[in-house]
Amino acid sequence: MSEESMPTLSVIDPLHTQLLANFTTAPEDDQMTREVKHAIREDLMKRYTSAKERHMLHASSALNPRFKALPFLSEDEKVETYSRLTAEAASLEVAFPLI
């Protein structure tokens, strides 16, 4: 992911999740490291919090072949994401039927 000069929307959610995990404090961290990790993690947790943002990020990642298994989501989030995408695809078929 870090080698991309122009990351796409589908990379945001996996990267955000990875950063949150990386900035979780560990028992062996010294006080300064814990404070820095805590500050960064708190800032990251304020981002992409609305349901609309989360759904958009999950859907874009699901449509990217690199992330289609959605390993960074819980099982419930995976099911919800693919259910939403399936419903949206079905609504497009009704609105624009194939001849």
Report on this structure.
With 99 residues, this protein is mainly α. The protein has one domain (9-91). It is built from 4 helices and no strands. The chain has helices spanning 9-22, 31-45, 51-62, 75-95. Helix 1 (9-22) packs across helix 3 and helix 3 crosses helix 4. It is elongated and about 65 Å long. The termini are far apart. The mean pLDDT is 92.
Entry keywords:
elongated; 4 helices; RNaseH-like_sf; Zinc finger BED domain-containing protein 1; 99 residues; mainly alpha
Spans of at least 5 consecutive residues whose pLDDT stays below 50 are: none
CA gyration radius, whole angstroms: 17 Å
Instruction: Please count the helical segments.
Output: 4
Question: How would you characterize the largest beta sheet?
Answer: none
Class derived from helix and strand content: mainly alpha
Helix fraction bin: 55-70%
The count of domains is 1
Distance between the termini: 40 Å
**Percent in strands:** under 5%
Number of strands: 0
Which H/E pattern describes the elements?
HHHH
What's the overall geometry?
elongated
Integer average pLDDT: 92
Protein name: Zinc finger BED domain-containing protein 1
InterPro entries: RNaseH-like_sf
Organism: Merluccius polli
